Amino acid sequence: MGDTIRLAGADGFEFTAYHEAAFTPRKGGVIVIQEIFGIDRHVRADVERWAKMGYEAIAPAMFDRLQRDFHAEHDDAGIKAGIEKARATPMEQALADIAACRDFLAKHGGKVCVVGYCYGGSLTWLSAAKVEGLAAASSYYGSMVQANAALTPMCPTIVHLGRTDAGIPADDVAAAIAEHHGETVPVYIYEGAGHGFNNQSPERYSAEAADLARHRTLELFDKAQAPG
Q: Measured in whole angstroms, how far is the alpha carbon of residue 139 from the centre of its chain?
């Protein structure tokens, strides 16, 4: 059973995070970065999945400074509210909170990896390039990846995209990453899967794509070594 903890950001603000210890012998830590909908049941379920795979996992509430315990439904109103929160959150602040999660997990020993979805997928890509001390990063369907494709990850990084994602042109993102990084950053495109395919909401979930992406991410994390 996970619990909610509080961590101090670089600005001194205490934000909440959903946390779960590893179920099996601990391999390291994983930072799970939310979608725009907040720390909802889908994020908590993902934290639990990583804990069951041997990783102490933590999901920071990225919008706590704007609204504690923010949750939004997957409808038009929820999407609008989530986008407003994401746009009102300074990027450097978000990355600093991710760094605070890195420090929390690093204190318990071993490597720290990061995985994120949608808004979190963008933050994962940016974290790989801007947050030191991460061992590996797995970015799922982040809308800001293409515009930031020139950034160079400091750790092994992979990207997952849905072929039918109406908001993210998968081939264009893959081409932008290949232009700057060649084959060093694998981009996986999942046929028949749309945006949010890892999220188990009925309208978005693709079990086949989610299982394969998670297998690839687990393989990346298991092989990763802590920097230094």
A: 6
Domain boundaries, the chain: 3-223
Choose among 61, 38, 36, 57: nearest CA to 46: 57
* Calpha distance 28→202 (Å, rounded): 31
Contacts (Cβ under 8 Å, ≥6 apart) of 17: 4, 5, 6, 7, 58, 59, 60, 61, 101, 104
Residue 88, pLDDT score? 96
Angle made by CA atoms 142, 148, 151, in degrees to the nearest 5: 120
Predicted TM-score (pTM) of the model is 0.96
pLDDT at 1 over 90: no
48-62, 83-97, 151-165, 200-214: least confident range: 200-214
The CA-atom distances, in angstroms, between 115 and each of 19, 59, 85 are: 14, 10, 20
Tokens for 62? 């990225």
The fold of the 3-223 domain, in CATH, is: Rossmann fold (3.40.50)
Q: What's the token pair of residue 119?
A: 């808004």
One-character DSSP codes across 156-187: -EEEEEETT-SSS-HHHHHHHHHHHHTTSS-E
Distances (CA, A) of 107 to 28, 71, 153: 10, 30, 23
Rounded average pLDDT over 104-128:
97
Integer Cα distance of 185 and 174 in angstroms: 9
Is residue 96 pLDDT above 90, yes or no?
yes
Question: Does the pLDDT at position 200 exceed 90?
Answer: no
Token digits for 70? 């923010």
Calpha distance 20→76 (Å, rounded): 31
